[in-house]
Amino acid sequence: MNKRTKSSRLRGSRTHGWGTKKHRGAGNRGGRGMAGSGKRADQKKPSIVKEYGYKNYFGKHGFSRPQKIIEKIKTINVCDLFFDTRDVNLDQLGIGKLLGKGKPPKGYNVKVGACSRSAKEKLEKAGGSITLLEDGTD
Q1: Phi-psi region for residue 135, left (φ > 0), alpha (ψ -120 to 50) or beta?
Q2: Where are any strands of DSSP class E within the chain?
Q3: What domains appear along the chain, each with residue ranges and CATH number?
Q4: Can you name the residues that pair with 111 across neighbouring β-strands?
């Protein structure tokens, strides 16, 4: 018989079948460290005030500054180039970089801000060319 262990059956149950307090793994201390120091343990408050100072210890302070959102460069692979004309300006289409995955369907003459080495090699092998609008081949 394949019986699951008790601990695996009680995963996510918060108390693991022991209720509260006595089996939290910290003896009869009521938690570890500063657990509950500002909430239910009034006896700890005087010692905290004495050691850390009342103003800065309890409660929330300040705020979290929202982080800047970094713009991602839009990319396209060589295998995804399907255009009617041979001359393609990817910069006007909002694509910043040409990558070298797959085989190009035809030899395109591409204008782009940046491209990978493999993309340049593959397009030139297919009979096309790449013109970099800005400085940047990696």
Answers
A1: beta
A2: 75-77, 87-89, 97-99, 109-112, 114-115, 129-132
A3: 35-63 (no CATH), 75-132 (3.100.10.10)
A4: 89, 131
User: How far apart are alpha carbons 129 and 79 in whole angstroms?
Assistant: 15
What pLDDT does residue 135 have? 52
Q: 122: how many CB neighbours lie within 10 A of its CB? A: 22
Whether the pLDDT of residue 100 is over 70: the answer is yes
**88 phi and psi angles, rounded to 5 deg:** -130, 130
Which whole number is the average pLDDT over 86-96? 91
Torsion of CA 15, 18, 23, 25, to 10 degrees: -40
- For range 99-108, the mean pLDDT: 92
